[in-house]
Each structure stands twice: as C-alpha cells, then as structure tokens.
Design goal:
Two copies of one chain form a homodimer. Chain A is mainly alpha-helical and 202 residues long. Chain A has two domains: 47 residues, Homeodomain-like (Arc Repressor Mutant, subunit A, Orthogonal Bundle), CATH 1.10.10.60; 138 residues, Tetracycline Repressor, domain 2 (Orthogonal Bundle). Chain A contains eight helices and no strands. In chain A, helix 4 crosses helix 5 and helix 4 packs antiparallel against helix 8. Chains A and B meet through helix 7 and helix 8 of A and helix 7 and helix 8 of B. The first copy, chain A, binds a DNA duplex (30 and 30 nucleotides) through loops.
Chain lengths: 202, 202
DNA sequence: AACAGCATATTGACATTGTCAACATTTTTT
DNA sequence: AAAAAATGTTGACAATGTCAATATGCTGTT
C-alpha cells in the first residue's frame, strides 16, 4: 500500500508551493506560474495557496527572497575563504554571481525584474538584498585598504561594481550577446576592467 | 463646429495606438496596458488594434522598437560631435544612455526586460538594438586607437562597457539604490572606472 | 474520550483580460 | 455604381486571480 495517500491537509504546503513555483519559473518563466497549475502540480486545489500567501505577488516575492538567500549564501562561502587576496575574492565573487544568474535565469529575472518593483520595500526582500550588498561592501572595503585607494567612497564603488556584474548578468540572460561569442573572456575582461579601473583611480 | 467628429475609420490608428501605449507604459508600467483600456483612451473599440497588430505582444514589441530608435538617435547625435575626444564621447554617450533610462524607466524596462524575450529575434527589434551596438562599437574602436590598446578585441570591450551602463541603468530604475544617495557621483565614477580600466589594460 | 475552536483545503462564483469570428461601415478599385 | 478591400465593432469564450461559503482535519481543554 502506497504511503502517498492524499490527506486533506497537506501539512507542509508552503515550502512545497515555493519549490514548485521555482521549478515552474525555471521551466517557463515567471509568467507561466498560475495558481491553478501550481495547485495541480502539487496535488492541491487552486485556492489552497491563499492560506499561505496573501496573493500571487506575495508568493512570487517569497520565491524571489529565497533566491536572494541562496545567492547570498553562495557569495558568502566564497568570501569567507580567508586565504585569498581581496582582489581574488572580488573576482571570485563576480564569477559566482554570474554563474548563479546563468544557471537560474528566470529566477534571477524575478529577483531583479519589474515584478519585484511594487513590493521592493517589503522587509523580506530588502533584508535579503541588503545582505548581498553588505557582503560586497566588505570585500571592496578590504580591497581599498589593500590597494591604498581608501579616499574613495566605498558605497559608490560597491554600486559601480554591482552595476557591472548585474548588467553583464542581465545581458547574458536576455541573450543580448550574439550566440557564437564566447562568454568566458567577456566575464574575465569585465571583472578585470573594474579591478583595474578601481586601482587606476588611486 | 468641432472638427472632432468621430468617423468610423480612425485613419491613423497604428501610430496613435503606439503613442498611447507608450504613455500608458510611462504612467503605469507595461502591465497596465490593456487592449480595452488602450482602445477606450484612443476612442476606439477593443478589437480595433487587431487590424494593426497581430496581438498584444506585437504591439508592445513595436513600442519597444520605437524606444530603441529614439535612444539610438539620441546616442547618434552625441557621437557625431566630431570636436570631442573619443574619451569624452564615451562619457557623454553613457550619460545620454542613462538619462534616457531614468526619464523613461518603464519604457526602458520593456526594451530590455523579459517581455522582449520571446520575440527578440524579430527583425524590427534586432535591427534597432544592433544599431545601438554599432554606435558604441565605433566609439570604442576610436578610443582604442586613441589610447593604443588596440590589441584587445573591440567586441568584448563593447560588451563590458554596455554591461556597466546597462547595469547601472537597471539598478537606478529599479530603485535598488538607497533613495538618499546622490546618483550623479555614481554615474561619473562608473564611467570613469570603465575608462580607466580600459586604459590600464593597454 | 468528547467537544470546541482553529488551521487548512475545496468549490462555486465573479470580474478582468486576450482573442477570435461574425458583422458593419468606410474607402478604394474596377 | 458595383465589387472588393480595409478598417472598426460587438458578442462570445477560455483562462486567470481572487473571494466567500463550505468542508475537513488537527489540537488542546475539560
């Protein structure tokens, strides 16, 4: 006898909904996530999700936040490698960031795209995203000390570095780079340009 | 007697629809564009647009393309100022680009966001976007000659510069930068970092 | 154990939306 | 002027988000 007997109460629905929504996002983009289809996949009715999320936007926002947390933890594990120079850490950080975006394009789009706009000031999202910012801040601050360019405002440099990597991620994801072009050299060149640019301004 | 007598045939509908859609995008984002509301605003029924656009996506794609053309023409007028050094041109180009994004955030989002994804290979969009790329290509090629860094692949440098500016535009638009921060210094720092980074790699 | 209250899930209903087919009206062509 | 093409309107339908009413299972109190 199968243990899969469907009980009226799912009893673990919230995380299951988020996981399945993330899968749907990966497969068909955020627009393909439908309350009805989501319920069908999880084996639950269309209305069940409303006991766990106030509406569809809230659900997507939670999925988005989970993406930030995943990315943040990957970034943190790179940063915490104390044996690397700050420059190496900066480069590794950029690569991890870009790898996440390339591997989870639709999820990344959800995190930074217009869907997040209306609810961006929601604490959940703000905290997750701020965590990422703080990680980058620490690395760049260390980099400034290492290279003696500490007279520049760290926050500004963070925004510059973040812009570069985020922009490259966005362009790669949206396939705005011709298909036959190798992306590895572009990533390296982008990171090196930022690093050199920071150094040159010392 | 008013000349506004509503004739059955609008006789100029296509461009009017696109203009009104652009206005709606500016006011309430691309999601707020509804065939019914669009028709109401223009004084036409909901179905009328389907004589000029195969579906809603096609309409938005055309609006997107018109955005590319506008941005492209602004960029071109900056570039064609022959009295400036290539470095100055590069900087001016970045500023024009960012200004467009800041002034037309929803339109910019439409141009580069996920909406364009499914139809990105459509000739209209591809040509408009490629035009922008070509403009940037010429400036950077000139810059390479000016600074003796011509051993680098121009195309790669274009992607790097474009990423930076596009990323900054995206972050500014999505309000991922804290409100109290001045954006002018960030823009300057970003452009200068790229330029210095390019120079340093010579 | 029994019961009450709460958490959770289902279903019917409704408004909104994109889209198509059938029809209406105007313009252009023959 | 008749025919044909172009353009605009309306009714209909399916898909979707969401809410209210209802049903079902769980948990703690007595």
């Amino acid at each position: 006898m199968k243990n899969e007997k469907k009980s009226y109460h799912h009893k673990n629905l919230r995380p299951v909904l988020m996981d399945e929504a993330a899968k749907m996002i990966a497969e068909g983009g955020a627009a393909s996530v439908t309350m009805r289809e989501l319920g069908k996949r999880v084996g639950v009715s269309r209305g069940a999700a409303y006991r766990h999320f106030s509406d569809k936007d809230a659900l997507l926002m939670s999925v988005s936040a989970s993406g930030f947390e995943k990315l943040s933890s990957e970034v943190q594990s790179v940063i915490q490698n104390g044996e690397m120079s700050f420059e190496s850490r900066l480069l590794a950080l950029g690569k991890v960031y870009l790898q996440f975006a390339i591997e989870n394009p639709a999820h990344y789009r959800l995190m930074y795209g217009k869907e997040a706009l209306s609810r961006w000031n929601q604490p959940v999202l703000k905290e997750s995203a701020d965590g990422l910012f703080d990680h980058l801040y620490e690395v760049i601050k260390g980099f400034q000390g290492e290279c003696d360019i500490s007279e520049k405002d760290t926050r500004t440099l963070v925004y510059v570095a973040w812009s570069s990597v985020h922009g490259l991620a966005s362009i790669l994801i949206e396939k705005h780079i011709m298909a036959e072009v190798e992306i590895e050299p572009i990533i390296n060149e982008a990171m090196q340009t930022i690093i050199n640019g920071f150094k040159a301004a010392s």
